[in-house]
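User: Can you predict the 3D structure of Sporulation protein YtxC? Sequence below.
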Amino acid sequence: MLEVYFESNKEIITFCEHLFRYNKNTELYWTVHKDWGNRLQFNDKIVNNQSIVAIAKSMVDVLITHRLSDMMRNIIMEKYYFKNTDEIERILDLSHWIFTGEDDDCLRVKNNQDPSQTLHAVFMENIKNTETVHYDSIVNFRLKFFKKELIHYVGLAIEEFKREEDHQAFINMLREYIVKKEPGYREIYILQGSSFSFFKSNGKKFSTLELREITRKEPLYIVGLDIDELNLSPLIAMAPAKIKIYGDYPSEPKTSTVMNVFQEKVEFEPIRNFPFPHHVKNY
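Assistant: Sure. Here are the predicted structure tokens for Sporulation protein YtxC:
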């Protein structure tokens, strides 16, 4: 008979919740051992490979739910020497995002790897071919390789945190720059795309030549912008009093940057509202 021991009441409840979600046919008997805490006894007749996989997955979920944050926070403070509370919490958020996230940006950062698979493999190895499993013993003594991996993932989170800091400093510098400039245009219209298309209030599209002339007249090197970059640089050079962006993707990176820099001066609308529809047909 397979016996699994948990010292924590919260952890055993989380374990059971996830286990029954993965395998509704699980049969177990829950008692309390005077020395080892909560004891789960599994019916031999249903302990097969499928149930062992479910048990291992549930143990991974317990660690992620109850222990991962403390493990990450300890690494941030003791391995990377962060002391500022706000910085620690932001890095912790990013570490969780890298560990559990599945969006494209997250997969890029962690090179399409799934760190929870290492955990699952460790728990599987310690459950198979044994009759007694102590959860705390596995976590304390059998996760050496995983903990090394976790240091790596927290390091990736710190790199992402530093990129965010650098980006925010860049955004703040651009904001300060345009605050000091007199608006060069009352209103600029933009169509989203792989590159922005810029339009004057009369519906005339800015040519590439016009945009280059505008950027070359402005000392954009002061704020670290390239005069040949034709998305953000023209807007900083023009410093319009109002910007209207039309498209279907408000969170698209170039658009987000413009909105962060110009803030209340920017409006985003769906492409169907673009006031010069003949340009949309060729869009």
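The CA atoms of residues 199 and 205 lie 4 Å apart. The chain has a mean pLDDT of 92.
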